[in-house]
Amino acid sequence: MSLIELNNITKIYPLGSQQVTAVAEVDLSIGAGEFTVLAGPSGSGKTTLLNLMGCLDQPTRGSVTIAGKSVGERSVRELADFRLHNIGFIFQSYNLIPVLTAAENAEFTLMLQGFAAPERRRRIAALFEELGIGGLEERRPNDLSGGQQQRVAVARAMAAEPSVILADEPTANLDSKTSEDLLRLMRRINAEKGTTFVFSSHDALVISLARRVVRLKDGRLEADERQDGKNSEVRIQESEENLNQGP
């Protein structure tokens, strides 16, 4: 079942007196439950494509459909409401609010959706335990490590149980072990809950653990590869064994 449909997408940005084509004539379908990475070097168009999927930007030409609903011709307010109820975001820089606690940051989307405080606390407590950050609810972002902040961002993205979670370079600011632990966790969530994940990344680790790799070059779709998952399952198993053994 297709969750995201991009049909003949082109995005052109003005740059002074010139124009820059960030994405050109891309057709792409993302199925429900996929674990997909948009791969390519800087300037390949992967972040632009992710922003178009997330309704953070509008295409110059072409159409975007998410969960059977066209996102074209919608007002700014309608798009904001659509994002709020359908899409979870994990940003490279975490985007946590410094004056809020970890729990308050994680429940922010639920608060915007109108969930009562007891239900917000229940969901966040369960997610924090699942993500391995239980007990850190009252800490503020500056008192957390990079890996802990990113897990708070994952909890925030997952809290409202969106159709899809979009992650822009989620391992860019993390060391290799923290990156692998986080990706292993996302793979488990994907497998157990069926949550759809789409990443933008040029990180070889992210690419190796994805089940599908969509490669971009100069704004165009260069390749669309499906991986059997055997290598990634081995990497995940090894990571779990190392965690269980401890230092």
From TrEMBL:
Q: Which PROSITE patterns match?
A: ABC_TRANSPORTER_1, ABC_TRANSPORTER_2
The UniProt entry, under PANTHER family, shows:
ABC TRANSPORTER ABCH.1, IMPORT ATP-BINDING PROTEIN
Q: Which residues form the ABC transporter domain?
A: 4-243
Query: Region Disordered: start and end of each range?
Result: 224-247
Q: Does the keyword Cell membrane apply?
A: no
Ranges of biased composition (kind: Basic and acidic residues)? 224-238
Q: The organism sits in which domain of life?
A: Bacteria
This protein is called: ABC transporter ATP-binding protein
Task: State a single Gene Ontology molecular function.
Answer: ATP binding
InterPro entries for this protein: AAA+_ATPase (IPR003593), ABC_transporter-like_ATP-bd (IPR003439), ABC_transporter-like_CS (IPR017871), ABC_transpr_LolD-like (IPR015854), MacB-like_ATP-bd (IPR017911), P-loop_NTPase (IPR027417)
One of its Pfam families is ABC_tran
Q: What keywords would UniProt list here? A: ATP-binding, Nucleotide-binding, Transport
